[in-house]
Design a protein that fits this description.
The protein is of the alpha/beta class. The protein contains 10 helices and 7 strands. The strands form 2 sheets. The protein has a 5-stranded parallel beta sheet with strand order 2-1-3-6-7, with helices on both faces. It has a two-stranded antiparallel ribbon with strand order 4-5. The chain starts with a strand and ends in a 12-residue tail after the last helix.
Amino acid sequence: MSRPVLLVDDHSLFAQALQLGLAAAGLPADRVLPSSSAAVVAACAAAAPATVLLDLRLGFDPDGEPIDGLDLVGPVTAAGCRVVVVTGEVGDDVWGTAVERGAVTVVAKETALDDLVPLVRAVHAGERVLGEGRRQDLLAAARRARADEDARLAPFRSLTPREDEVLRCMAEGLPAATIASTAHVSEATVRTQIRAVLSKLQVSSQLQAVALARQAGWLDRRSDLPVS
């Protein structure tokens, strides 16, 4: 079988067990240690065309940043590989996002080896392994999840960069006077900004604003901020 198999997973016990099982079935697999996103893409590109069994949660890079397998599906596919996502993640929205980005299919980590081996063989042969009905269901779930997220985050994305910083200071429990001193502006200016935050989020108190931001997951996000 000319197409190599690569296994990208940060859990050594799972990876080694899967390697042994695949080798016993005549599908030797090389493991790619996910030291960084760039390293994974480079290793897959060097082995292309390869079938890549890719986990979605790959630990952290040397800078402490999480390595997200979803972000690797597109680049690895573009490098000439066929990606099979093998994950413990649940939810059709996550699986659908992987398919959107180029994965040929997604399987759960609890899938039996007797079921995984023929799937890998079929991927090797270039066969379609994901039924069209299931594929469309996954893609629809991904679209719904994005629409829900957009609606949930829209009020926060309407904040200016300064209003967002004020909201984050509020979440840290800082009073208006402290925020003003740190930003070298007047307290009156900060109170105007606080009122703007409350208005845009359609709440009546700072506590409600912070609670809403936490519930929406906004305080964990930085990439959606507008550029000042």
